[in-house]
Specification:
By secondary structure, the protein is α+β, with helices and mostly antiparallel strands. It has 19 helices and 16 strands. It has a single domain, classed as Glycosyltransferase, CATH 1.50.10. Strands 1, 4, 7 and 8 form a 4-stranded antiparallel beta sheet that branches. Strands 2-3 form a two-stranded antiparallel sheet. Keywords: Carbohydrate metabolism, Glycosidase, Hydrolase.
Length: 569
């Protein structure tokens, strides 16, 4: 619009006033009471089972974390030195000492350059700061999902104010009336993004929000509300400040989000039914139905809400509904979405057309529909949550974000979490390649690509959402590695990223089977690529940061998973 522009003058002014680019030396505040370790059974006044289990990284002391991390790095050093690894991993000159990498300062400078100000206060970071690009599109907006790694970076660096401002501003936007054409969206819907507009004549700032009415395909972002709750918990864990989450506004905001996804309908499954393009994969990619990314975020947001909701009259009603949904959701996901070698063999031998309560092939999946690639891809050791499960349909593709969030939220059992990390190690070339991390695997191509994507020219094979490599996923991989006690995997991935990201001007994504080429339409100085790297580095250097984004397993939710017996003798 004429006479209106993004408030980048304020951004630049903020940068000039923030000359200190390096990390602050701040203490970590990742242990407010023990509120996250409540068993769900306590909330329903059920007796707690006294079951011994191996402690995870979240329960260990910082000293134990440091010892384990050092041992992991020593093992990595012995296995992949001298020089370069068998996978051509760049050798790190500071692998066993936490000297800042030279590109860390550049990353902080670039991150601060992306700050957006509203009436003098920082409220987020724009998606990309690419001067070379002729088309801005919506990359000059603050996206909810994109801001999460930026928020974590600022929290880890002891700068929580911008995160608080963002949470409050998006909460205010949630209260707006939301319409697409003549249809009104649910009251709890969070925006996909917002843009700060500056009127130089009136010297006024205003905000324009997008709830999906301007998005490609006009799809509302299902993940925005979940990320908002997860980030509110991260802020609370990092600062130890419960006052923000306990405000009536935040309590109401959470209840509105939960009311949307806990409402009763015709569903026979506890998973959320979603349209294509409702999450990070925001274009048509065949993820309609019950995508793993949404289910994992849903699970994590429900668990975060449990410890944030007040136990007043309104809160208790939602807490009871959440507990029941979590039990059903965890059983469903761990039973039907999980795939390993044995389960794959069981599905391969499924009977079909079973009609009774005793049916084993409950979704009537036709074994002939199993794609050929998965038989070679599945190692003897390892497993993962597949992309989608619905009647007569299983999407066997690997999706990185959903599997990493499953580990962090403890949707994955400790055994499943270890199996996911085993798979990444066993299939490093396919899932990591030369630039972490594949958003999904494998790419769809030829006739399938034409049918599934509608001939999308941006999602061609091994590009963008269709098997592209996204540096932002590095922080999720690192967090999952630390939680499962595999820091050496994260170090290998970070080494790859450090060899290219700064030199390539922080691209949005990379193309090719190995992620070797800068994406054909990738923006440079993509903010979440920058922030994802910083968060990964800070977590690896101080694993106690993991507490703000990780949830411990609730022992009462672990189901007895019975293997399929649907084969003929």
């Amino acid at each position: 619009m004429d006479g209106i522009k993004v408030n980048m003058d304020s951004v630049r002014g903020g940068i000039d006033g923030a000359k200190e680019i390096g990390l602050k030396n701040v203490g970590s505040h990742c242990s407010i009471s023990e509120m996250d370790d409540y068993d769900l059974s306590k909330l329903l006044d059920k007796p707690r089972l006294n079951i011994e289990r191996k402690r995870s990284f979240d329960e260990r002391s910082l000293s134990e974390l440091s010892i384990s991390l050092a041992r992991g790095l020593e093992a990595y050093e012995s296995a992949y030195s001298p020089g370069r690894s068998a996978l051509n991993t760049p050798a790190s000159s500071a692998r066993n000492s936490f000297e800042p990498h030279p590109m860390v300062a550049d990353a902080w400078e670039a991150l601060r350059r992306s700050l957006v100000y509203f009436r003098g206060q920082p409220v987020g970071t724009i998606a990309a700061y690419d001067h070379a690009s002729e088309e801005v599109l919506n990359y000059d907006q603050v996206f909810v999902r994109d801001f999460v790694p930026s928020a974590l970076a600022f929290l880890m660096n002891g700068e929580p104010d911008i995160v608080k401002n963002f949470l409050l501003k998006t909460l205010q936007l949630q209260g707006w009336e939301k319409k697409i054409d003549r249809f009104k969206l649910g009251e709890g819907a969070m925006p996909a993004s917002f843009k700060v507009l500056h009127d130089p004549v009136r010297k006024k700032d205003s905000i324009m929000a997008d709830f999906g009415e301007s998005a490609i395909g006009r799809v509302a972002p299902v993940d925005s509300g979940f990320w908002w709750i997860i980030l509110l918990r991260a802020y609370t864990k990092s600062t130890g400040d419960l006052s923000l989450a306990e405000t009536p506004e935040c309590q109401k905001g959470m209840r509105l989000i939960l009311a949307l996804c806990l409402s009763e309908g015709f569903d026979t499954f506890p998973t959320l039914l979603c349209a294509d393009g409702c999450s990070m994969i925001d274009r048509r990619m065949g993820i309609y139905g019950y995508p793993i990314e949404i289910q994992a975020l849903f699970f994590m947001a429900l668990r975060a809400a449990l410890v944030l909701l007040k136990h007043d009259e309104e809160g208790k009603e939602f807490i009871e509904r959440i507990v029941k949904r979590l039990h059903a959701l965890s059983y469903h996901m761990r039973s039907y979405f999980w795939l390993d070698f044995r389960q794959l063999n069981d599905i391969y031998r499924y009977k079909t057309e079973e009609y009774s309560h005793t049916a084993v092939n409950k979704f009537n999946v036709i074994p002939d529909s199993i794609p050929e690639w998965v038989f070679d891809f599945m190692p003897m050791r390892g497993g993962y949550f597949i992309g989608n499960v619905s009647p007569a349909r299983m999407d066997f593709r690997w999706f990185a974000l959903g599997n990493c969030v499953a580990i962090l939220s403890s949707l994955a059992t400790p055994e499943q979490a270890s199996a996911i990390m085993d798979l990444i190690e066993e299939r490093w070339e396919e899932l990591v390649g030369e630039m972490p991390l594949k958003i999904c695997y494998p790419a769809i191509e030829s006739h399938e690509w034409r049918i599934v994507t509608g001939c999308d020219p941006k999602n061609t094979r091994w590009s963008y959402h269709n098997g592209g490599s996204w540096p932002v996923l590095l922080w999720l991989l690192t967090a999952a590695c630390i939680k499962t006690g595999r820091p050496q995997i994260a170090r290998r991935a970070i080494d790859f990223a450090e060899s290219r990201l700064l030199k390539d001007s922080w691209p949005e994504y990379y193309d090719g089977k190995l992620g070797r080429y800068i994406g054909k339409q990738a923006r440079k100085y993509q903010t979440w690529s920058i922030a994802g790297y910083l968060v990964a580095k800070m977590m690896l250097e101080d694993p106690s940061h993991l507490g703000m984004i990780s949830l411990e397993e609730d022992k009462q939710m672990k189901p007895i998973i019975r293997r399929s017996s649907s084969w003929t003798c």
